[in-house]
Amino acid sequence: MDRHFRCATSAGGPVRAAAAMGSRGQVLKLFKLLHRTRQEVFKNDTKALEAARQKINEEFRNNRDEKSEEKINELLKIASDVEVILRTSVIQAIHTDSDKIVLVPRKDLLQDNTPYLDKPTKKQES
């Protein structure tokens, strides 16, 4: 029997053990998702990749002994929000000259753009 499962079972019964295993699975799933997002968002930028890796690992390490289910859920929500922000809001930029920057948007960030018209055109009647 796994050490974590044994401790959880003896402390609060099988229901508490199942809850602990469930939140542990959620934490691991979110941890992996953040790292996959990091690799996609900061592709080809070794400094940013390493800084993001260290920050993700540090935050999860700092909270690994958290027991409160409320606090764990709050931390999971924050981590999930961070993943969404990274995935939907971060665009890489490359300095090409002293005064020029080239943006490198990912395909999933690009959206169809409807041109703005000052004066809408009249619909033709059939």
Secondary structure layout plus pairing:
Layout: H1 3-41, H2 46-62, H3 69-89, E1 92-97, E2 100-104
Antiparallel strand pairs: 1-2
Query: Can you write the helix and strand succession as a string?
Result: HHHEE
Oligomerization state = single chain
Strand order of the largest sheet: 1-2
Query: For the terminal residues, how far apart are their CA atoms?
Result: 75 Å
Share of helical residues: 55-70%
Any idea what the shape is? flat
Rounded mean pLDDT is 80
Number of strands: 2
DSSP helical segment count = 3
Major beta sheet summary? 2 strands, antiparallel
Low-confidence blocks of residues = 1-19
Q: What percent strand?
A: 5-15%
Class by SSE composition: mainly alpha
Rg on CA atoms, Å: 23 Å
Architecture overview:
With 126 residues, the protein is mainly α. It is 61% helix and 9% strand. It has helices at 3-41, 46-62, 69-89; strands spanning 92-97, 100-104. It has a two-stranded antiparallel sheet with strand order 1-2. It is flat and about 65 Å long. The chain starts with a helix and ends in a 22-residue tail after the last strand. The model is unreliable at 1-19 (pLDDT under 50).
